[in-house]
Amino acid sequence: MCINDLEINKEAKIVEINCDDILRNRLYSFGVIKDEKLVVTAKSIAKKTLEIKINQSKIALRSSEASKIKVEVC
């Protein structure tokens, strides 16, 4: 399952990140790494963007970026 499929306020663990090195480095700089836990805190009306909370940070991701991050519900 990818982050886009998560319901709001559900906790999940990152199991895989499938993207190019540029996006991977950007995600790593925000703390988006394998085995880290996150929560989807909000989605836009059109579901084009979503907000996730990881550690103590909130990050906005495009739907296309979120689809590259595979998670499993905790």
TrEMBL record:
The keyword S-adenosyl-L-methionine does not apply. Pfam families: FeoA. SUPFAM superfamilies: C-terminal domain of transcriptional repressors. GO terms for molecular function: transition metal ion binding. InterPro entries: Fe-transptr_FeoA-like (IPR007167), FeoA (IPR052713), FeoA_core_dom (IPR038157), Transcriptional_repressor_C (IPR008988). Gene3D superfamilies: 2.30.30.90. Residues 1-73 form the Ferrous iron transporter FeoA-like domain. This is Ferrous iron transport protein A. It comes from Aliarcobacter thereius. The lineage of its organism: Bacteria, Pseudomonadati, Campylobacterota, Epsilonproteobacteria, Campylobacterales.
